[in-house]
Write the structure tokens for this entry.
Amino acid sequence: MGFQEILGQEDAVLVLSRSLENDRLAHAYVFSGPEGVGKALTALALAGALLCPMGPTDSESPRRANLGCGVCPTCRRVASRSHPDLIILEVLPDKKEISIDQVRDAQSAVSLCAYEGRKKVLIVNAADRLNASAANAFLKTLEEPPEDTIIVLISSQPHLLLPTIRSRCQEVRFRSLSDEIVARFLVERKGLDRARAAMLASVSAGSLGKALAGEPGEAAARRDSAIDILARVAVEPLEERAALAESLAKGEGEAEALIEWTDLVVRDLLMASAGRADRLVNVDRAEDLGRIAERISTSALLDLAEEIGRARAALRWRGNPRLVLDVFLQSAAAIMAVRTEAARP
């Protein structure tokens, strides 16, 4: 795993590679940005650069020093997260937070001398999920960091980190990936056809991780469900909308999935309303989308997009999925009831 494998994060990679070249790394970093955009991969690439005994072999490379080769046994162990000088702190599979006991184990590990490399690297995945006791204990490590240890905190919600932790780290920001980058990866590396890749890329919100987690068949089913809900939400009885909200809220991630797919469908409806069928992502449902677009005004679609934004924000702030979906579906029903008076002829 090397920096050359990180997609779409040129600014972040440049900051780190220049710091490596000049031997001016900070003792601690916060890699912040959306989920699934390469923060963890970049942290492993940085670890490889610090732990690799080989260094670059390409004399033409602009990064001539302190970069991992990506192919030696050390780099392979870093990529597989099995190197003894790489300590990874993260939420355990059956837990929701990082505990103080885990932090203490990590502190013991970084207090020892490096086994093989020049440095030790401590990576904290989902650092915003350190519980209160763990966060306060971890703060001591940042206040008195071991000289041979580089610390990387990874967070998609850096505002949840203690200000005293965040202030002791250099922040490196990661951005959402373009749909083009995500779709190209899915076509070239995963063998998806272009239509499916474009659909997954559009709903991924710039997250390659989300796109990779979505099975094409499952994605199509969720997309079809979002189209169906929009088509009938205005005429369904209140109790049926409430039952739908309750059903979806029971499945992990289902509420978020509905909101994201509905956002994509609304985007296509706006394209259809503007007569831009050539810009549709869901081209296989163009006829159905056209029928829905004829029944609703552009202003109503924009109102619906605002409701989607509110629902997304509420879920991001860990709002109750059942309540969020209930409010969203009731609002969508009212908006979709705005019919042909202002709709496209």
In short: The radius of gyration is 24 Å. Strands lie at 28-32, 86-89, 120-124, 149-155, 170-173. Confidence is low (pLDDT under 50) at residues 56-65, 340-345.
